[in-house]
Structure to design on (636 residues):
């Protein structure tokens, strides 16, 4: 039997059994994670079906609604009230879910993919490559995350894409370090040494032996990073670095000016803020549940 | 021990050089020149030229970098374009504000976070444990600026118990020898001012301290759970020590190792990352100042300020590492 065949058999054997299925069955019994899945499901459903759920467009202003002062609170016609331009807040929150979801996913994908390539190279090649890459990561980590993101947005210009790239960039060193550490701890394992001794090429050892076994912490971190990304993007929006069109129903941007309406219309602050909390909490609950499910040390406990 | 410290200090050099290059390139990558930001788009070429000369922006790039490096080493960060004060002077008044806020936030986090985590571990799996876990998860899921707005709305606008913005009542005219207002008030024995300053500090400190609180309570819980099952704890119990003594002397003391590291690292983060809290509460610290400098294209402030914060951040991390090595002999020799 050739090495390649051996490898493919090993993969077959690995796939159905083991860590992932075990983890999934533990995840299903974790009430927190279930709540997380429900929240995230709700969030994704809002994002996808926003046009069908929302009674109005996100930028349909009806000034006649605020003739009697700003701004009418929740009512039967407007579940979440009306904003300072007479727009239906509920519709804006529904459409806002789209921005937050896309922004979160794109930002994390940017950070994850670049971070993983750097981490894999540093961890597997080692030596000089490792030192140089990790020093660069250290420099990036030395600038506090939000400040780095603000700085990148300032250089790239305002806008949704710029924000996504900026927030993603702040996550590169986190993923790079995580994967590097994980790979280093796998490198000395017996199955890696034995694959090497039968002459499996380096790249396929990395791809088919080391990476699959190093991914668990990365996936957990990715889930938690989605929450962080949504918060960071909202923070940049709040600072006024968000989409150039201020009418965009991005949740953080919606919170920018609300302090002026504190007395008469607290719902303008409460509703978008609560939306962010719900979405982020969902991802954090899932991430937390996954960490518990994947951590062999905790298996007996729960 | 000395070797460990020296090695860590040497490791700082490439990071600081890399950082200075990064900041230097970044500032030049910003769209719009400082002359444009300062003089407006319709400035005469002569005025632009004069300004560029004044700030040394007409020299070749490498010379500008070397110049910048030389000044930085001498703590001369230049003049702020927006305020015309020296950047060093601005840092002198603003950094204490940030430090005061960060320390207050950390105090809040430690006082509530550690007991929360400890009792969660003690009653592992119970209602208290579950709810504290959920609360800490909620704590890291709330955007800091939303929490700030919420606190402000409830305690300042609705209830009117606490002031909404700033460090001190604007009508209060007192001396600030150290720029740490709490300290100043205590030194001058001005209890009225102290009350005023503290009341301004409470809400921002809670807003800023919530994330560290959540993280601390989780770390404490995990750490206490780990230590609780150690052999020496079982031995201590078996030989009949009272539970309180076991908790204090054997469990908490050993559990404090990872907790103290987290406290240190989080403090470093708070010192440098309070942009949002400072914005919500109009706190005159370095975070908000830097965010404003980005809008104003204030090159000297950005170059000096960000480098300063990053240096502080790296130094705090270094101190954390070293003190960890002092507390935990196992690290020193590896």
């Amino acid at each position: 039997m050739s090495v390649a065949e051996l490898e493919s058999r090993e993969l077959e054997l690995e796939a159905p059994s083991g860590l992932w299925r075990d983890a999934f069955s533990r995840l299903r019994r974790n009430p927190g994670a279930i709540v997380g899945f429900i929240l995230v499901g709700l969030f994704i459903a809002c994002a996808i079906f926003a046009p069908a759920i929302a009674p109005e467009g996100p930028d349909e202003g009806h000034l006649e609604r605020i003739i009697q002062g700003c701004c009418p609170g929740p009512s039967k016609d407007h579940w979440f009230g009306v904003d300072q331009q007479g727009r239906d807040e509920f519709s804006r929150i529904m459409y806002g879910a789209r921005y937050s979801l896309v922004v979160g996913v794109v930002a994390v994908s940017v950070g994850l993919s670049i971070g993983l390539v750097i981490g894999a190279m540093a961890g597997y090649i080692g030596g000089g490559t490792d030192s140089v890459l990790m020093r660069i990561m250290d420099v990036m980590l030395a600038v506090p995350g939000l400040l780095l993101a603000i700085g990148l947005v300032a250089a790239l210009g305002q806008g949704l894409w710029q924000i996504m790239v900026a927030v993603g960039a702040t996550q590169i060193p986190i993923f790079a370090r995580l994967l590097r550490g994980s790979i280093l701890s796998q490198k000395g394992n017996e199955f890696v040494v034995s694959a090497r001794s039968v002459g499996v090429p380096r790249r396929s050892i990395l791809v088919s032996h080391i990476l699959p076994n190093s991914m668990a912490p990365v996936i957990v971190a990715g889930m938690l990073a989605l929450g962080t990304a949504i918060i960071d993007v909202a923070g940049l929006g709040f600072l006024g670095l968000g989409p150039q069109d201020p009418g965009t129903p991005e949740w953080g941007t919606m919170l920018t000016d609300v302090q002026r309406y504190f007395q008469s219309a607290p719902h303008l602050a409460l509703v978008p803020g609560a939306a962010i909390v719900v979405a982020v909490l969902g991802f954090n609950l899932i991430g937390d549940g996954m960490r518990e499910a994947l951590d062999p040390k905790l298996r007996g406990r729960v | 021990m000395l070797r460990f410290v020296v090695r860590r200090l040497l490791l700082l050099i490439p990071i600081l050089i890399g950082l200075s290059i990064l900041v230097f390139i970044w500032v030049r990558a910003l769209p719009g020149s400082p002359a444009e930001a300062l003089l407006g788009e319709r400035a005469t070429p002569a005025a632009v030229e004069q300004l560029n000369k004044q700030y040394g922006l007409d020299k070749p790039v490498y010379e500008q970098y070397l110049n910048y490096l030389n000044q930085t080493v001498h703590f001369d960060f230049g003049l702020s374009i927006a305020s015309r004060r020296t950047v060093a002077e601005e840092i002198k008044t603003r950094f204490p504000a940030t430090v005061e806020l960060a320390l207050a936030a950390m105090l809040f986090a430690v006082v509530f976070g550690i007991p929360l985590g400890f009792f969660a571990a003690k009653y592992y799996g119970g209602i208290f444990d579950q709810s504290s876990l959920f609360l800490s998860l909620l704590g890291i899921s709330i955007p800091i600026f939303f929490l700030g707005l919420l606190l402000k709305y409830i305690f300042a606008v609705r209830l009117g118990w606490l002031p909404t913005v700033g460090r001190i009542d604007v009508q209060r005219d007192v001396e600030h020898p150290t720029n740490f207002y709490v300290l100043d008030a205590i030194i001058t024995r001005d209890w009225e001012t102290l009350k005023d300053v503290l009341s301004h500090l409470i809400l921002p400190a809670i807003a800023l301290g919530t994330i560290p609180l959540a993280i601390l309570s989780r770390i404490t819980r995990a750490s206490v759970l780990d230590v609780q099952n150690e052999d020496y704890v079982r031995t201590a119990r078996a030989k009949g020590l009272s539970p309180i003594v076991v908790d204090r002397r054997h469990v908490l003391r050993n559990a404090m190792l990872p907790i103290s590291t987290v406290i240190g690292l989080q403090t470093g983060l708070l010192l440098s990352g309070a942009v949002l809290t400072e914005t919500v509460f109009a706190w005159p610290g370095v975070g908000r100042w830097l965010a404003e400098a980005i809008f104003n294209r204030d090159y000297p402030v950005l170059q000096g300020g960000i480098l300063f914060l990053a240096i502080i951040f790296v130094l705090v991390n270094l101190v954390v590492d070293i003190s960890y090595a002092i507390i935990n002999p196992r690290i020193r020799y590896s």
User: Anything to note?
Assistant: The mean pLDDT of chain B is 80. Chain B touches chain A through 41 residues (CB under 8 Å). The two ends of chain B are 11 Å apart (CA to CA). Chain B has 15 helices and no strands.
